[in-house]
Amino acid sequence: MDMGLDGSRVLITGSSQGIGFGIASAFLDEGATVVLSGRDKNRVETARVNLAEKYGNKEVDFFVGDLGVGKNRENLKEQLAVEGLDHIICNIGSGRSMPVLQESEEEWRRMFEINLFNAVGVVQDLRALLAQTVKKGGDASLTFVGSICGMEALGCPLAYASAKAALWAYAKNLMHPLAKEGIRVNQLSPGNIIFPGSTWEAKLAQDANSVNSMLASQVAMGRLGELEEVAKAVVFLSCQHAKFITGTNLVVDGGQLKGV
User: Fold this and answer.
1) Nearest alpha carbon to residue 187 among 209, 199, 171, 170
2) 3-state DSSP: the chain helix, strand, coil percent, rounded to 5?
3) Residue 105, Cβ neighbours under 10 Å: how many?
4) For the segment 233-245, what is each residue's pLDDT rounded down to a tens digit?
5) Residues ≥6 apart with Cβ < 8 Å to 223
6) All domains of the chain, ordered by start, with CATH?
């Protein structure tokens, strides 16, 4: 199926590794131009080189900097404004936190900063670029990468789960105001996804029996999700076939959630 993304320009935040890197690969598969971003210069450069080589030395743009800092977002906006922007994938986040009820106030603030406030800053400073695309007759969308931890009590770190729940509330309530600007807003909430360097890779190496037991009892499909399964779903939410989809939270978890 032709996704209609050939030639489109996509910013993927937090894309030097993991799920963000997989999303970048999936967009390149569809002929899009991607803009990688991350805080670690070496990781971003390595990701850029790997993707450029894999896709026939196709140019892969990039930005290095903490997008939680307003000045960095201003610099990124100036960089993107040269060629415009069609889609934003907000993938900044981390679930590494403290045990439940042991979180300090500082840890609560850190979790919300990483998983919510960074995304808010990106939207506030970059959405004008998407609006410009719409004015020129193009399709523009904004997709947040959330987590099923923000949707149901699954035993996830409490501060992380709360921040991801807030992210979905933010995304859902952006739907109407951004629809007036012609921008679609959706979220993708993955479950347990395995990829090189992931938490689940480490857990399998440490105790595969416990992981398999959990999957058998809690996940309908009885397995971990693959990186490509998440990445392709994000691509769909951004593509021409999803032009009437906004305000949706697409869950990719193999049937782990029971309340959705």
Assistant:
1) 171
2) 50, 15, 35
3) 7
4) 999 999 999 999 9
5) 215, 254
6) 9-195+226-252 (3.40.50.720)
pLDDT of 94 over the 80 cut? no
What's the token pair of residue 40? Answer: 């670690």
Residue 64 phi, psi (nearest 5): -110, 125
Whole-number pLDDT of residue 153: 84
57: left (phi over 0), alpha (psi -120 to 50) or beta: left
Amino acid identity, residue 177? P
d(CA 93, CA 195): 16
**Any idea which residue has 């996704």 for tokens?**
3
- The pTM of the full predicted model, rounded to 2 decimals, is 0.94
Burial class of residue 70 in the structure, from the number of CB atoms within 10 Å of its CB (0-12 exposed, 13-18 middle, 19+ buried): exposed
- 186's tokens: 């959706």
Q: How confident is the model at residue 171 (pLDDT cuts 50, 70, 90)?
A: very high
